[in-house]
Amino acid sequence: MADLSSLFRDREILLTGANGFLGKVVLAMLLDRFPHVRRVHVLVRARPDLPSNARFVRDVLDSPPLRPLLERFGRDGIASRVNVLSGDASSPLAGLEPSQLRELSSHVGLVLNCAGLVDFFAPVDLSLRANVDSVERLLELCAEIDAKLLHVSTCYVAGEADGLIEETEPIRGFYPRRKGQGDTRFSAAGELADCRETATELSRSLEGTARTEALTELGRVRAARWGWVNTYTYTKSIGEQVLDLQDEVEFAIVRPAIVESALRYPFPGWIEGGRTAAPLVLMALGGLLDWPARPDISLEIVPVDLVAAATLVVAGELLAGKARPVYHLAGTDVNPYPLEDLIQLLCTEARGNGSGRASVPIWLDPWPRVQLMSSVRAEQRRRSRRERIQRVRGLMEGLGRRNLAARLRVVELQMSFHEETFRQYLPFIQDNRYIFEAGNIREAFAGLSTEEKRALPWDPEAIAWPAYWRDCQIPGIRKWVQPEAVREWTFQL
């Protein structure tokens, strides 16, 4: 392929989702690695109490990933290369004014869509707006300004699956339970229209909590009907099919697996918010021993800086007219790390630094060691443990030991939280063994120069996973992901 420096030199790019975890790193890496990019237009939705420019400064410019960039270029240097646009990716033409569209159509050749709602079971209307409406509106924008579209999706659009997920699986008409290429039962356009109509009816007939619960359940039911494991992957797959059903805008899709702490850039361990794996990690660090998980499954983790680097490599391929339709950004096909080894490492780490304790008092738990088991067996053990706790709590209340009884009630609440978390994560740790083929990004990376490979490394095969977890992921979660959650989930009697 043509060298990336030439492809990005004097280029103008429109970026959505820059205030998200991945979007921040993509923006920082783009400006850092390619200082001759002319301008990055960043679409930021204003809030009632915060204009777009102020939100960009607060949420992006002053965030940790941008600090090295600020030190290198200064605020004025960044301001000269970043243009904040007030808009909304889910609004017609992204909510931009005609004068802005005229300006963009003269310069912007690529829209990089990092926006989306990463929530497993959000109300379906919100999930559709973020993950489908935005794709439709950005396609309109790209057609208007004659730009190509690079869309960030997720590997888990595969839904229910066990084994190798190929990048060549056709996008159009896909649903996880499809029985071969001749199965045309699923229509993204029909499904989308029907789901939207039902959601609108529910919104009109219900209010408040009842409305939210009904819309959440609607997404859950419609996803499960076709074999998607949650509303998030259901809507992301429909968004992909919206792209594939049109032929006016040239596009490519990158599908990261579980995006987690940075390996190198902007610094090891950078992570933001409750990322996908964080609840599981925090439960393990808190001393949880019983895991409804299969030992042969690898939790598909990809450091955020590798995902950002790969996204920019694919952007170069798209600009050069050489992009494949789909790029999996994953590493299990070349460097698996079994879930059993990971959980053992986490629990050992917790005991080693004194942060981990058994999730219930030892005198109530006859199984004081880490075990992986079926979901049925795990439920039986949780039920048995809960019954013992309730009996002891009743005894303590009868003896007037209210303080101890209250603390046992906290244990019960913690167990309920664990159960709800596992219900959401069973598709990834028990039900499905995902192995995502990632040949397209390896091929694209192999075509880079030695200098560009150093600038945009894609090397999941070289990651020493125990060291990554000890040096990046665990410290990153402890520092950046709601430290109060660690205190809440680590119960000590």
Description:
With 493 residues, this protein is an alpha/beta fold. It folds into two domains: 4-257 and 300-333 and 437-462, NAD(P)-binding Rossmann-like Domain (Rossmann fold, 3-Layer(aba) Sandwich); 276-298 and 337-432 and 465-493, no CATH class. It has 18 helices and 13 strands. It has helices spanning 4-8, 21-33, 52-61, 67-79, 98-105, 124-145, 188-205, 208-226, 231-244, 278-285, 304-319, 339-352, 375-398, 402-431, 439-446, 450-455, 465-480, 483-489; strands spanning 12-16, 39-44, 82-86, 108-113, 148-152, 163-165, 251-256, 258-260, 290-291, 301-303, 326-329, 371-372, 434-436. α2 (21-33) packs across α11 (304-319), α8 packs across α9 and α13 packs antiparallel against α14. It is globular and about 80 Å long. The N and C termini lie far apart (61 Å). Mean pLDDT is 89; it is low at 354-367 and 486-493.
Summarize the SSE layout with pairings.
Blueprint: H1 4-8, E1 12-16, H2 21-33, E2 39-44, H3 52-61, H4 67-79, E3 82-86, H5 98-105, E4 108-113, H6 124-145, E5 148-152, E6 163-165, H7 188-205, H8 208-226, H9 231-244, E7 251-256, E8 258-260, H10 278-285, E9 290-291, E10 301-303, H11 304-319, E11 326-329, H12 339-352, E12 371-372, H13 375-398, H14 402-431, E13 434-436, H15 439-446, H16 450-455, H17 465-480, H18 483-489
Parallel strand pairs: 1-2, 1-4, 2-3, 4-5, 5-7, 6-13, 7-11, 8-10, 9-12
Helix pairs in contact: 2-11, 6-9, 7-8, 8-9, 12-17, 13-14
Q: For the terminal residues, how far apart are their CA atoms?
A: 61 Å
Structural class: alpha/beta
CATH C-level name of the largest domain: Alpha Beta
Provide the residue-averaged pLDDT. Answer: 89
